Amino acid sequence: MPQTLEGLSRRALIGCGLALAAPIGAWAGPPRRLVFGVYRNGVHIGEHQMSFDGDPAAPLVTTEVQMLVKLGPVPVYRYRHHAVERWRDGRFASLETTTDANGKAQKVEAQRQAGGVVIETGKGRISAPAGTSPFTHWNAQALAGPLFNPQEGKLLKVTARRRTDGLTTPGGRAAAALWSVRGEAEIDDWYDADGAWLALKGKLKDGSVMEYRRV
Question: Which residues are CB-contacts of 55 (< 8 A; sequence separation ≥ 6)?
């Protein structure tokens, strides 16, 4: 989920510890491709696409996000995000991202090392605890450990819990699991019975609502 869009809670998705999150069920691995329509206050503004290559336990995940917000016919906000994420033996291994948020360029590189995860940003280096993962939403099991913002590289101060209510996605699909992330972010993620990411709903800083609906 992009971290700006004029206020997608800039403090959102930035911090550190999470409550332990039990797995959804038997992990079947992600599908080969996920495509989401992105909506702001119900208006379609772009797409979020993810492709998965390699072994399910060690996928290479490529993400492409494009969004355009208009005021009437006039474009007022453009967003592009590209990420390459690698996992090995079910654990986060590395991430490289580039982002253009309305002309503001950002770049993040992160790598798991023996003593933890090292995150390089345009503002310097961050040393994160072992087990830290990027908050890229597709893997609910990552909620069991610390998370970082893949666009800015900052650690997240949030907690996550699995809920037993609200198992219908914003697009009207039935889900098997719903995880709510709260703290510096207010985000809900839905997953199907195989643990595949189905949908997202988050509140932006300006009070508007962002939704991801799987195509």
Answer: none
pLDDT in tens, 139-192: 999 998 899 999 999 999 999 999 989 999 988 999 999 999 999 889 999 999
Is 167 among the domain residues? yes
Beta strands in the chain (DSSP E): 33-40, 43-53, 60-71, 74-88, 91-101, 104-113, 116-121, 124-128, 133-134, 147-148, 158-163, 177-183, 186-191, 197-203, 209-214
Q: Do residues 209 and 202 touch, judged by C-beta distance below 8 A?
A: yes
Short-list 189, 164, 114, 156, CA closest to 19: 156
Rounded CA Rg of the chain: 16
| 159 lies in some domain | yes
d(CA 78, CA 96): 21
Q: Does 17 reside within a domain? A: no
Does some domain include residue 3? no
CA pair distance 77, 6, nearest whole angstrom: 8
Find all residues with CB under 8 Å of 72, minimum gap 6, and list them. none
**Total domains in the fold of the chain:** 1
Kindly report, residue by residue over 10-56, the tens digit of the pLDDT.
Answer: 333 223 233 333 344 444 566 899 999 999 999 999 999 999 999 88
Q: Give the burial string for 50-83 (b: 16+ CB within 10 Å, else e).
A: bbbeeeeeebebebebbbebeeeeeeebebbbeb
In this prediction the pTM is 0.85
Q: Which domain holds residue 55?
A: 33-209
